[in-house]
Amino acid sequence: MGYEITLATSMCISVVFALSLNLITGFCGQISLGHAAFFGVGAYTAALSSKAGLAFPLDLLAAAAAAAVFGFVVGLSSLRVRHDFLAITTMGFGFLFLGVVRQQDWLGGEMGISAIPGSGLSKLGYLGFAAAVAVAVALFSAYLKRSWLGFSFAAIADDEDTARVVALDVARYKLLAFVLGTAIAGIAGGLYAHHVRFISPDSFGFVESIAVLSMVIVGGIGSVPGVVFAALVLTALPLWFQVIEDYKLLLYSALLFIMMQLCEDGIGGLMRRLTQGRRRTT
Q1: Does 244 map to a domain?
Q2: Mean pLDDT, to the nearest integer, of 19-34?
């Protein structure tokens, strides 16, 4: 029973993490290849603040705030570039984050941070808390997508130049999407730190950025239910089948290639088509 609870908690954290990138890439069309770094900022902030005596879940708010600050800085730089250059910029931040963490003893260096204080909840209670956060983020994402802000994000994702013509403040909306998405990634990182109670730079590398991007693309860029489903499945598979764990990067890369070739709108697109087909038959 303990393993199933641990697995379910990891799946809930992955849902929060994937939805955070979906807000940036899926809603606003900004490609990020270094999103795991913001996840890491949240994890390290929660770990350090909790070891300093900050109570749970206040350290999750600190994690969100720290990740949002870094997201604001990276988001400002992203206003100058687009598409491939934006992906390279975010990837560069990811490598910069890892380099700094590995060189700083107060961040644990290569050995990481161990003995992170627990949340004070039982394993089942922590699962319930993580699940509640995942549901809250999913509902927030669904609401945001259908709000005036979500429509503004969608307009920018479709065509930035046209969005400017209709008087949308593209820079402000892109920056807002980046800050919101990275703040949620920080919360996911804080949840992860309390869940595993040990973090190291290896947990926030390029592979993790590709993994979460795979969840967004396989789920369907911009689709909330699709991304939730993909995050659950792609988190469970490597843990269910340990042999996959050693080839995780190959698995995610293959999935990205297959989905882009066969079904660009992912699982979310399939869900929409199935729903529309049922409506026509009734």
Answers
A1: no
A2: 92
